[in-house]
């Protein structure tokens, strides 16, 4: 870190307030995960931190030394590490990018390399900082204007102007979008409802295949083992899956053999020769 | 013996501006005393009001005396421009909001499609209400068996919701990304969506009030 | 073939009175079209408004232009008289004010562009708050891959901040001259931006039309 620059020091953020007991556990878990990522107090992300660091160079943003800025930033991150402050991921991504930029600024340009030069990248970063700074100032100027309800006032006793309709409905775009989102995401929150009527369980399949395998001396298609009325549709899928799983189990027990001649070819099975 | 004010009062023209602004912005008629309380020391609201009344005489708006107070009022001969018919504002029911959202996102859409998305039958009144409001109209018939009527949103809808076209409505992932879509819809936390043994249940949509679009809370 | 009006329009002075009454009566800005709709045939509200503006220039109440509409508002220099009318507005977060400024100066602007300028992902509730406040609305979709939604500022924004149009934003021409409003192609040049948990945010399935049926089969 250069001496003429006032070092900015990372600080710990105050830990979040404990959650009330009645808060759902899912929320607690999520919060706990988030709490592991300690943000850098007071900065709205890496670009904001860079802007603050750039100001300490006490030059016009146009003249900021990007190389020096990269060093300042890396110094800041290093100090955070020593203070055992865990930085949010985006700060680390920025640090990696700046380390890369720094090395490219210091090395002679590689004529083989495509894409923007290190100087282009540095100039673009300077542009981004200047633009963010300009937007900050614009926001401050906007908020400092003579605002309605604070400096300028509207008619205190407006007279109702009749529309043709006698009823107007109060509904905003937000309400509309939320209603749609609610409908479209409703299924995401619906607990999984188990459909017993159309499910053939593996226990049922095991029992069935055990009973039938004694008769299968020759290779027989798996589909032959499906119960009546379970040959197609949703029930067919369930019965096929259960029966296949059951045959795997029986093969493991050494009771039968399974064969498939090619990918997607019918699965066939037979009693294992020698098994009773 | 009254103390002399430190500064001379503002000129009458300036006092008139002050009175004009205060009377305009106030939600009630304002008395001379209230005006004086808010004006700089030494001001003479009575004279300022009198001068302002003369200025507004014969204009579209007049400075009326209401008891001891003053207020701006529309000139009586222009009341025809106001047509003070009462305008009632009501919240759009949830059923209607949902139906409207579906039409906006899926137009042209048939009634059967709306019902499929909402998971409940749409009462006649809901669509009628949206049509009457001028937000929905009947589009082309769908060239499928039964040739069902489709519904589309109107210019009036775009106008009300500040949209340039219905195609500009943000999609689901955009809603989520913009934070407009809570990971869990508010107010539904405590409502069990599906109770055991009724897979067809559609949350609290099935309450009768919703079906008839009368749930105005 | 336009039909001749049965009566000549009222004289300009009378039209001015009408416009004055209507604008005084409404708390919200009124458009020239709405004024014309309520005035007798053949009236020219634009001219009446222009004449009225001159009449009110420098008064305690002024006729402000807000986009395509007009509204009477008290003069800003008299705000010291208005303590009783001051509306306590919810304090906007720094993120929200910055986002608002970016939308105003760069409009129409996509969320990705806002994030590129701020260097951080837009948190939940920021855009939502600005839309609810009535300062930001959804504009046309950008005709680029993914057809992202854009955001623009509203008439309510202009009214609140006392701007006649978005072209009158303070410092706009200086910022433009300095090249700070150019949209430079983001991407490989930009500093990296980490987004929280929306990797699945792929533009294609966000089109409203695509949502239909997508989850049903």
Characterization of the model:
The complex is a heterotrimer, with 1 copy of chain A (276 residues) and 2 copies of chain B (217 residues). Chain A is mostly helical. Among the domains of chain A are: 21-108 and 117-142, no CATH class; 202-271, Arc Repressor Mutant, subunit A (Orthogonal Bundle). In chain A, 46% of the residues lie in helices and 6% in strands. Chain A contains 8 helices and 4 strands; from the N terminus they run αααααβααβαββ. Chain A has helices spanning 25-35, 46-55, 66-82, 89-106, 118-143, 173-185, 202-213, 233-252, and strands at 167-170, 220-221, 256-260, 267-271. Chain A has a 3-stranded antiparallel β-sheet with strand order 2-4-3, covered by helices on one side. In chain A, strand 3 and strand 4 (267-271) form a beta hairpin. Chain A starts with 24 loop residues before the first helix and ends in a 5-residue tail after the last strand. With 217 residues, chain B is α+β, with helices and mostly antiparallel strands. Chain B folds into 2 domains: 12-85, Orthogonal Bundle (Arc Repressor Mutant, subunit A), CATH 1.10.10.10; 89-210, Arc Repressor Mutant, subunit A (Orthogonal Bundle). Chain B is 37% helix and 14% strand. In chain B, the strands form 2 sheets. Chain B has a 3-stranded antiparallel β-sheet. Chain B has a 3-stranded antiparallel β-sheet with strand order 5-7-6. In chain B, helix 1 crosses helix 3 (45-56) and helix 4 crosses helix 6. Mean pLDDT of chain B is 77; it is low at 183-217. Chains in contact: A-B, A-C, B-C. Chain A binds chain B through residues 153-157, 159-163, 165-186, 189-191, 193, 195, and chain B through 21, 24-28, 71-72, 74, 82-92, 94, 96-98, 100-102, 104-105, 117-119, 133-134, 161-163, 169-170, 172, 175-176, 180-181, 184-185, 188, 193-194, 199, 202-203. Strand 1 (167-170) of chain A pairs parallel with strand 4 (88-91) of chain B.
């Amino acid at each position: 870190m250069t001496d003429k620059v006032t070092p900015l020091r990372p600080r710990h953020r105050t830990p979040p307030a404990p959650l009330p007991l009645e808060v759902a556990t899912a929320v607690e878990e999520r919060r706990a995960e988030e709490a592991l990522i300690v943000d850098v107090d007071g900065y709205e992300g890496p670009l904001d931190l860079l802007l603050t660091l750039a100001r300490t160079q006490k030059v016009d943003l146009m003249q900021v030394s990007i190389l020096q800025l990269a060093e300042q930033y890396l110094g800041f991150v290093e100090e955070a590490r020593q203070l055992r402050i865990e930085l949010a991921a985006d700060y680390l991504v920025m640090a990696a990018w700046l380390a890369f930029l720094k090395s490219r600024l210091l090395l002679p340009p590689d004529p083989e390399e495509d894409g923007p030069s290190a100087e282009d990248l540095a100039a673009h970063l300077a542009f981004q900082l200047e633009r963010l700074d300009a937007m900050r100032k614009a926001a401050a100027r906007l908020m400092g204007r003579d605002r309605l309800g604070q400096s300028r006032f509207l008619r205190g006793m407006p007279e109702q102007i009749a529309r043709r309709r006698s009823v107007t409905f109060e509904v905003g775009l937000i309400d509309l979008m939320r209603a749609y989102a609610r409908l479209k995401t409703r299924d995401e929150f619906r607990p999984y409802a188990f459909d017993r009527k159309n499910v053939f369980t593996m226990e049922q399949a095991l029992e069935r295949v055990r009973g039938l395998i004694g008769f299968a001396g020759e290779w027989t298609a798996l589909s032959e083992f499906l119960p009546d009325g379970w040959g197609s549709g949703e029930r067919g899928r369930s019965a096929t899956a259960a029966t296949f799983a059951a045959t795997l189990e029986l093969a493991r027990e050494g009771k039968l053999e399974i064969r498939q001649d090619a990918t997607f070819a019918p699965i066939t099975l037979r009693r294992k020769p020698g098994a009773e | 013996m009254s103390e002399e004010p430190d500064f001379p009062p503002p000129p009458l023209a300036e006092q008139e501006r002050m009175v004009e602004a205060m009377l305009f912005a106030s939600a009630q008629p304002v008395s001379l005393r209230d005006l004086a309380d808010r004006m700089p020391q030494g001001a003479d609201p009575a004279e300022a009001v009198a001068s302002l009344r003369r200025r507004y005489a014969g204009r579209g708006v007049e400075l009326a005396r209401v008891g001891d107070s003053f207020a701006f009022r529309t000139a009586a001969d222009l009341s025809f421009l106001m047509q003070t018919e009462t305008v009632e504002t009501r919240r759009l029911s949830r059923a209607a909001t949902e139906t409207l959202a579906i039409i906006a996102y899926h137009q042209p859409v048939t009634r059967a499609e709306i019902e499929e998305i909402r998971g409940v039958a749409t009462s006649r009144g809901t669509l009628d209400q949206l049509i009457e409001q001028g937000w929905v109209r009947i589009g082309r018939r769908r060239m499928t068996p039964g040739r069902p009527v489709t519904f589309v949103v109107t210019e009036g809808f775009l106008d009300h919701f500040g949209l340039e076209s219905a195609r500009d409505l943000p999609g689901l992932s955009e809603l989520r990304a913009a934070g407009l879509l809570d990971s869990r819809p508010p107010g539904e936390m405590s409502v069990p969506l599906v109770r055991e043994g009724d897979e067809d249940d559609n949350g609290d949509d099935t309450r009768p009030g919703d079906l008839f679009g009368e749930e105005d809370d």
